[in-house]
């Protein structure tokens, strides 16, 4: 009986999904019923004008403008499909709404081919008894403000630097913004040999007697919900890879899509978790992206935990910080 109910629910979801696709070619976009379901007011043209104003979008020609408008409309339909497949989250207009999925992958994500450093070890198994129901490193002062990587596929750098900043905070009690630009410019082994990463304000103008932090004991965490939580509490924010398929249209809420592959393409920083404030709200991870505070929930993404949704548990790593001083 339970399997039958699950099958009926899946057929219902697929029916709605394909209904959205059939409605994709609605002739009058201003009255498009699908678009009306994912925006607060007005049609696609009104929403596009607000989008351009909010994010300062300027296009080089009328042809480019018209092309981006069509991409924008396509993404509104895509957002509706995401609402159907991910009903516990809100999907709609984001700063990426004028990018095609291919452009988003190539220009924004950029985790392809990036893995853990060669010297990474398996993290030791930690006790997972008495873990708190909710935890957030932002409340402890271990997380720097959300940055914006721009149109550069460097999310892996922001992810690992965020983990190093947290580890440095646990080691020194000082929250320092380290240079992700230097991490992009140099490879990991060179940075380690040269004494670590500079502060953000010091990179570009090389000064003497600069305090640096260097990553040490880079460890890979077991694909296990409790072990990830235990490592998060002990070592600080964790570097994580994720499939960002639903993130281009994400506005808020807890993302828990019915289907999402574990093909990892985006680096994020795991900073905490929640138990679900309401009965219908699922337990979730809190991850920090590198797309500025205007995206998601002030730059953060909530994704449900316990099922390795979108591969969020598949590549998690800790970083320990060691202080050095270069003259």
UniProtKB/TrEMBL annotation:
CDD domains in the record: Peptidase_C1A
Pfam family, any one: Inhibitor_I29
Domain Peptidase C1A papain C-terminal: 131-320
Domain of life from the UniProt record: Eukaryota
EC number(s) stated in the UniProt entry for this protein: 3.4.22.41
Enzyme class: hydrolase
UniProt keyword terms in alphabetical order: Disulfide bond, Glycoprotein, Hydrolase, Protease, Signal, Thiol protease
The keyword Hydrolase appears for this protein: yes
Keyword S-adenosyl-L-methionine carried by entry: no
GO biological processes: proteolysis involved in protein catabolic process
A single cellular component GO annotation: extracellular space
Protein family per UniProt: Belongs to the peptidase C1 family.
Protein name in the entry: Papain family cysteine protease
Record gene name: 11443223
């Amino acid at each position: 009986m339970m399997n039958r109910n699950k099958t009926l629910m899946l057929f219902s979801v697929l029916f709605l999904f394909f209904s959205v696709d059939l409605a994709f070619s609605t002739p009058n976009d201003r009255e498009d019923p699908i678009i009306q379901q994912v925006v607060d007011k007005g049609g696609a043209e009104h929403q596009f004008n607000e989008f351009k104003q909010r994010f300062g979008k300027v296009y080089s020609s009328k042809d480019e403008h018209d092309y981006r408008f069509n991409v924008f409309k396509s993404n509104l339909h895509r957002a509706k499909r995401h609402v159907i497949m991910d009903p516990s989250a809100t999907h709609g207009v984001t700063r990426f709404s004028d990018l095609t999925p291919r452009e988003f992958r190539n220009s924004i994500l950029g985790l392809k081919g990036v893995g853990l450093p060669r010297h990474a070890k398996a993290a030791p198994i930690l006790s997972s008894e008495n873990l708190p129901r909710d935890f957030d490193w932002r409340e402890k002062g271990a997380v720097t403000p959300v940055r914006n990587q721009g149109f550069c596929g460097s999310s892996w750098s922001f992810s690992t630097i965020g983990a190093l900043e947290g580890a440095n905070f646990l080691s020194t009690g000082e929250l320092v913004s380290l240079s992700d630009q230097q991490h992009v410019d140099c490879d990991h082994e060179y940075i380690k040999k040269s004494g670590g990463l500079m502060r953000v304000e010091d990179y570009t103008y090389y000064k003497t007697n600069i305090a640096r932090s260097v990553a040490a004991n880079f460890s890979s965490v077991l694909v296990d919900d409790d072990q990830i939580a235990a490592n998060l509490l002990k070592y600080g924010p964790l570097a994580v890879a994720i499939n960002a398929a639903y993130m281009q249209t994400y506005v808020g809420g807890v993302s828990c899509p019915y289907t999402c592959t574990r093909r990892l393409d985006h680096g994020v920083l795991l900073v905490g978790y929640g138990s679900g404030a309401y009965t219908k709200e699922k337990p979730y991870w809190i991850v920090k992206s590198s797309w500025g505070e205007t995206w998601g929930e002030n730059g953060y993404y909530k994704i449900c935990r316990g099922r390795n949704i979108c591969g969020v548990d598949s590549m998690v790593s800790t970083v320990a910080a060691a202080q050095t001083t270069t003259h």
